[in-house]
Specification:
Distance between the termini: 143 Å
Helix content: 40-55%
Mean pLDDT: 79
Amino acid sequence: MVRLARFGVRRHLALIALLVAFVPSAVAASPRPAVRSSGEKPRRAKAPKTTHVDAIAIQEHGLSLQPYTYEESSPLPKDGVEVVVHASCLNSGDLQQCRGDWGPCLMPLVPGREAVGVVAKVGASVKGLVPGDRVAVLMGTGLDSEADDDGADRSTLDTLTTGTAARRLRVPARWAFELPLSLPSTEAVGLLGAGGAVWAQLTARGLGKGSKVAVLGQGATATLALQLAEALGMETYAISDGAEGAVPSTATEVVDVTSADHQRLHTGSFDALLVISTSSSLDLGTYLPFVARGGSVLVANSPTGILTLSPRILQERRLSVLAPPALSRKATLAMLGFCAAHDVEWPATSGEFSVEGAAAAFATLEDAPGARAVLVEGAEHAKWRKRAKKLIAAGAKGKGAPGGATVVGSAAAAASAASAASISSVFGVFSKVRESTAQAAAAVTDSIQQTTRTLVEQVEKEVVEEEEMRHGALQLGGEAAPAVEDGDDDDDDDDEEEEDDDDDEEAGDEDDEDDEDDEDDEDDAEDDADDDEDDEEEDEEEEDDDDDDEEEEEDDDDDDE
């Protein structure tokens, strides 16, 4: 107990010493409140810097494009990123919106929903993106009815409908996706909308390797769909009504619904019909019989305005008509990595980032609704390509992306290295403190264990002495029996005992057999005695019968007399 008390005092002294050592340093490191002299004027908050954004827009519904400049005066939101655009995508959906086919929207209207660029600024709460990263951006439809899962809001300025046909964009970080280094910007732009819809339908509808899929449509998105389905291991066909140019030129297997041979071979054989038609109206009546019973009609990135189908066939074959589900950020990154890993290429027409380039893109889309038009900002794109070559040559490894592709980390590598250096110095101090604390704790633990063992031994010794005083020491008189030295004798004795036991068992078995034989003999004797008694009874019965016969004869004689 005295030792325990001393140990407790030592422990308290050690803790007090540690507190005395750390408190002055903590107080010295604590920030002091700023002291402002009485004559100093309070500082005014800086006004947000106004950014002028050059864009291409229309002032009213139609295709009259013109240069347009708007201002971004509010500070960058905490969850936002600012992107310098070097490639923008236009498709038939943008053409329809400019014409007013989608309904009213806030004017002026900057067309375009997808772009690729380099991050210039990030908000205070943004994680995973730093200035210098190359990203793909997706914006919403710009309609009053748009949902928050269609892309970034295009009405944040309340004065116009923003779009990707602009040299700078501000969007929430959730709608900016890192791009693999091996995926070119001209191939990446447009993948979020068209590729995302196709990817969602192919991966979220229970279609696996070996599934038979028919792609109905033509143009860039249909070509992309065929590549993705084949890369996923599906049996892929292009299906059409036999019209010229109705299927992508890259299709290797084509089904003509008007052919008798194709009807015989493929009717009811497709697990899914992927609809990517760009025509103004589409009648599915001749295509539904080719879908297997219980199959699906999957609509993906189709700008078709009118779709005709037979409810009777849908019910008879139990078919489902499904729109593409919204992709999560993780699934979108997986799709981008998959495209980079499989070197996906899909057709596009390129033009310069200007009013003339946008007008030429709209003219192309009018003639070929399934086309993909890309506006390239030459200077910014050249900067990126030069930097990408250096990164590839240096073997830069940025943030890992799904599919094994690497993503450009730009300033992320330098920032992480600097932060790692500063953090390592801080953690070095803490590691030393932790090491010394661990050593002190180990010493205390050893001391406690040693004291406990000593106390236990002392108590056991006292208990033994007390028992001896009460009952006396237990001593055995005489000499101990000699131990058997030769283990072979024991083995021989055991073998002899086992043999004796075996003999006894055999003798017992023989006695049992003799007893059984005696019992059988007694039973036979009893059976013989019973047989003798039966014979005697039969003899007596025969004698009685003879006496009866004699009496009858005597009676007959008497009657005769």
